Automatic annotation (TrEMBL):
Organism in which the protein naturally occurs: Geofilum rubicundum JCM 15548
Annotated protein name in UniProt: Ribulokinase
Alphabetized PANTHER family for the sequence: FGGY CARBOHYDRATE KINASE DOMAIN-CONTAINING PROTEIN, RIBULOKINASE
Gene Ontology, cellular component aspect: cytoplasm
A Gene Ontology molecular function term of the record: D-ribulokinase activity
SUPFAM superfamilies: Actin-like ATPase domain
InterPro entries: ATPase_NBD
């Protein structure tokens, strides 16, 4: 049995995902693989005219399975059984609404073809109006915290995206328990730790601590 240990790195980009296997001590690259997201390639769930770019979680899962198997096959004997870790890199902010079990709503039959139940890709700019409202609100605070991140809250970021989806889709709003970023969901998925325990949740309409945004959107800490 080889004394060498290996790590698999997974990089999720806008169009495809890549896997690379490296020797854990030396950092030497052993093998790599890349595959495009099949539904994304078909242009599904996107509307460029509206700056809407959504990705189905099945694209992430199916591509992950392919590139890991392919990279391991290229690496040869003695590598798979000596993999000691995996790491993920994703685009962001790329959030998705989930149920109480931490399952993306688009993985459920009722939402399988609903773009609002899918991951909202970083370059989705459908939440321009909501971002403007957040910026307006921030200017009213004693401390405008946007000064610490460039002076403006972007429509590419999670709170604007979450508010936009909740306003647009009543069914998603009713079914959603919380949201999770792509970079957090992938490790939760492969370790079987999807069930939410302590999260800062988007909760509607049960108010515990108002954020100042319209339509009853609030922030609260969930304990379950």
């Amino acid at each position: 049995m080889s004394d060498k240990k290996y790590v698999i790195g997974l990089d999720y980009g806008s169009d495809s995902a890549r896997a690379v296997i490296v020797e854990a001590i030396s950092g030497e690259e052993v093998s790599s693989s890349v595959k495009h997201y099949p539904r994304w390639v078909e242009g599904k769930y996107c509307d460029p005219a509206k700056d809407q770019y959504r990705q189905h979680p099945l694209d992430y899962i199916e591509v992950m399975e392919f590139i890991i198997k392919d990279a391991l096959a290229q690496a040869g004997a003695g590598v798979a059984e000596n993999v000691v870790g995996m790491s993920f890199d994703t685009t962001g902010s790329t959030p998705v609404f989930v149920n109480e079990e931490g399952v993306p709503l688009s993985m459920l039959p009722a939402f399988a073809e609903n773009p609002n139940a899918m991951f909202v890709l970083w370059k989705d700019h459908t939440a321009v109006k909501e971002a403007a409202e957040i910026n307006e609100l921030a200017r009213q605070w004693k401390i405008d915290y946007t000064q610490y991140e460039g002076g403006i809250y972007s429509s590419e970021w999670v709170w604007a995206k979450a508010l936009h989806v909740l306003r647009q889709d009543e069914q998603v709003r009713k079914a959603a328990y919380s949201w999770i970023e792509h970079c957090d969901w992938m490790p939760a998925l492969i370790t079987g730790k999807q069930k939410l325990q302590r999260w800062f949740a988007v909760a509607v309409p049960q108010v515990t601590r108002p954020c100042g945004l319209k339509d009853g959107m609030v922030c609260r800490k969930r304990n379950s």
